[in-house]
Design brief:
Elements lengths: L5 H19 L15 E4 L2 E4 L4 E7 L2 E6 L5 H10 L7 E2 L4 E4 L5 H38 L5 H34 L2
Length: 184
């Protein structure tokens, strides 16, 4: 009997995907539609993701243009963007909303870099928690007589290998995002 690492691999893949999705919402110096992915507005009494109810386009390197599918939602979308943590004041011309991304200062870049590093650390903690759960599962299987001592040791090694690979991947993603943030 061999320990099944498939559930662990699926959970680690989800943790990495979640980390990447979180990084997509972090504003670097360029316009990025991903910053709106966590912005919800009130649409007939229910919170609705803004990007599902509008066409979001990158007009140029520093400008996003948001065109609502329903023009009556323009004010609600504008208010939601103002209330969000994006830190950009929307400009509403009656038909579309424009978001102009200012050039980031060195100080703001460092703050964003720290924020991104915290997200990376959170992702690593999630991976380590998954490792702990997998190790506990392998020990339980050994105790229940499903795995032998050698199989359990081999399972721990493969669990650690998967963990190391995932943490390396997080480090690579982090390095790429830091480089993007610090570029002028």
């Amino acid at each position: 009997m061999k320990f099944d690492t498939k559930p662990m691999e699926e959970r680690t893949a989800k943790a990495i995907a979640s980390f990447e999705a979180t990084l997509a919402t972090v504003r670097a110096s360029q316009a990025n539609a991903g910053v709106l992915s966590r912005v919800n507005f009130d649409y007939y009494g229910s919170p609705t993701p803004l990007n599902t109810m509008a066409d979001v386009r990158v007009a140029d390197a520093r400008t996003l243009v948001i065109t609502p599918y329903d023009s009556t939602t323009l004010k609600a979308m504008e208010k939601a963007i103002q209330m969000s943590d994006i830190g950009i004041n929307p400009m509403n011309d009656g038909k579309v909303i424009r978001l102009s991304f200012p050039q980031l200062t060195e100080e703001r870049r460092r703050e964003i870099k720290k924020q991104v590093q915290k997200y990376a650390e959170d992702a690593k903690v999630a991976i380590r928690n998954i490792r702990r759960d997998a190790n506990e599962d392998s020990k339980k299987q050994k105790k229940d007589g499903i795995l032998t001592e050698d199989e359990q040791k081999a399972a721990e090694k493969s669990i650690q290998d998967i963990t190391d690979k995932c943490i390396k991947k997080i480090e690579e993603i982090l390095a790429k995002k830091e480089k993007e943030i610090m570029e002028i």
